[in-house]
Amino acid sequence: MRASLAVVATAFVLAALSLLLPWALAFDPLAWLVWGRETGRLTLDTTTGPSWKPFPVVFTVVFTLWEHGAPALWLIVARAGGLLALVGAYVLGARLAGRWAGAAAVAAVALSPWWLFNTALGNSEGLLAAAVLWAVIAHLDGHTRAALACATAAALMRPEAWPFLGLYGLWLWRRDEDRAAVLAAGLVVPLMWFGPDLLGAGGALGASHTARGVPSPGSAKLADVPFFAVLGDTATICTLPAVIAAAVAAWLGGPLARRIFAAAAAWVLLVAVMTVAGYAGNPRYLVAAAALGAALAGAGAVAATTRAVAAVTRRGKTESAAAGPSQARAAAWAAPLGAALLVALVLVVTGGTLRDQWTELGQRAAAADAFDPLIERAGGRDALVDCSRIRTSARARSLVAWRLDLPMRDLDARPEPPAVIIRSKWFYGQGLEPPSAPGYTPLVTTERWQIVTDCGPAPQLNVSSEP
């Protein structure tokens, strides 16, 4: 117990220290902060922004009591989750095939295309991966209540976790274990998912409608054959070397490795089926499977190399007395060799992507840091609101809503005059968004931002769009 608390405390300390570097939050975490603030004011509106996600908002409702510190507080939680996912990958990988497998599993997660970017920007993927990995570990250690708690946390972040939580709850119920906790999980999950949307969107399925809306670039829903696009995204987000190594672990390993592989494959299949049904199929939805796959990959790389080295050693051994020690030495370095090979192959695949992500993280931090000075140069928040309604791009609306204490709704509506337009230059090569329009006077222009105005009375929210 003390060791576990020390690991968690260390993760939070390291996450807090990481804020000494420039940082920014992604679109979704900023929206969760807005929703946390609105929940505290009893004005929650979930009709715009990302789809509803209960687990982060539980934190942001509390954090927004300290409004200026709320973004940093959430980022500490999210980054601590990413670090705990690395620890979970090590523990599960080591359980499957020893410490070198655990080390390789950590590298497979840390060098994957999803871990650095999402953890750094405060998305929930690191927390999701940690919840899934530690649910498996807790179950294997016999701590069923902790496993149920972790599975419930995962189910409050991704709906794909619901069937797994349901099956685990049914298993516990039939064993007459933790029935009160199972009932609590069975009540909390639907209440947290559907209750806020029922109040804040006028319908319990608001999150589902949003998830079935316009997908973000790169989502499998945009592909000609979404089902196969999800499978391709699996190979990308896990990396192909890790997928192959995970399959090897299922082939060479025991029942535990095969069950974990089956669970990861079931998660991927569920995402694929949901994408065919009209959901976005964003590659981030596959992170839980990728985390389990990383632990398997470490085990598969070590198992395959150990067997290969043992086979070579057996073929080359002689009747001499040196055969025994030679075989022992070969077995000793086979595991680290397998781990190193997996790490090298994953890095070859993702090195360029990680370099680009690091560059973009710096650009996002610079853009976020430049926003408040931009508003000050424009006369301040109140001056802009007094001028007219605020409009901005779809990608910037959660940042503008959070920083200017505005509802997200209608911020990205068509900027018909009169209005104040906060234009942003995003990170994919496009110019300022939304496009320029006649009749507006440039007020402030910086490298990534511009404010143009056409002052006049106008409501912030479109009355015709009220539910």
UniProtKB/TrEMBL annotation:
Highest taxon of source: Bacteria
Transmembrane residue ranges: 73-92, 124-140, 146-173, 180-207, 227-253, 260-280, 286-310, 331-354
Keywords: Membrane, Transmembrane, Transmembrane helix
Coiled coil regions, renumbered to chain: none
The name this protein goes by in its record: Uncharacterized protein
Organism encoding this protein: Solirubrobacter phytolaccae
